[in-house]
TrEMBL record:
GO terms for molecular function: DNA binding; restriction endodeoxyribonuclease activity. One of its GO terms (biological process) is DNA restriction-modification system. Pfam families: Mrr_cat. InterPro entries: Restrct_endonuc-II-like, Restrct_endonuc_IV_Mrr, tRNA_endonuc-like_dom_sf, Type_IV_Methyl-Rstrct_Enzyme. This is Restriction endonuclease. Residues 38-147 form the Restriction endonuclease type IV Mrr domain. Gene3D superfamilies: 3.40.1350.10. Keywords: Endonuclease, Hydrolase, Nuclease. It comes from Evansella cellulosilytica (strain ATCC 21833 / DSM 2522 / FERM P-1141 / JCM 9156 / N-4) (Bacillus cellulosilyticus).
Length: 160
């Protein structure tokens, strides 16, 4: 019995801290978010910023569990279609591995579409593989456009 209590005393804080790490309560004002801010984020923070960006575009967005996500960081739903998203917040350009991961996720999540989103740019090889597999790539420039769309939508909603 004492062993069980000690085990719970150790396990509960670990589980709780993982949950906080995986799903932080963002109070970040996206109005003030810059691409440089994104460059400083870790992968979990980046995923949590992408969620509201997609939601303002009419998607229902769910973040997948950290490990064992089978190549998808977010699963989006809209108009009865499912889209899997691979999020890559890196310091260098994104290669074919990210595209390979999301292609595998399409079947696992029974998705209709796939997107790889990055704060960087994609290599020629990644672009070629994405094109062959009908994977949409959202790069550094398009992330900035998504942030602007988000800000306009939030301002529009708050003025109603």
């Amino acid at each position: 019995m004492i062993g069980l209590i000690i085990g719970l005393m150790i396990a509960i804080p670990i589980i709780w801290s993982y949950k906080l790490l995986k799903e932080p309560d963002f109070q970040l004002n996206i109005d003030e978010l810059s691409i440089e801010d994104i460059d400083e984020m870790n992968g979990y923070e980046f995923e949590n910023i992408l969620k509201p960006l997609f939601e303002t575009q009419g998607y229902k967005a769910n973040i997948t569990k950290g490990s064992g996500d089978y190549g998808a960081d977010l699963v989006l739903s809209k108009n009865g279609e499912r889209t899997v998203v691979q999020a890559k917040c890196y310091k260098s350009n994104i290669g074919v591995t990210a595209v390979q991961q999301i292609v595998a996720a399409i079947k696992y999540y029974n998705a209709d579409d796939a997107i790889v989103v990055s704060n960087q740019f994609f290599t020629k090889q990644a672009k070629r593989l994405a094109s062959i597999n009908n994977v949409k790539l959202i790069d550094r420039v398009e992330i900035q456009e998504l942030i602007l769309k988000y800000n306009r939508e939030v301002k529009r909603r708050s003025s109603i």
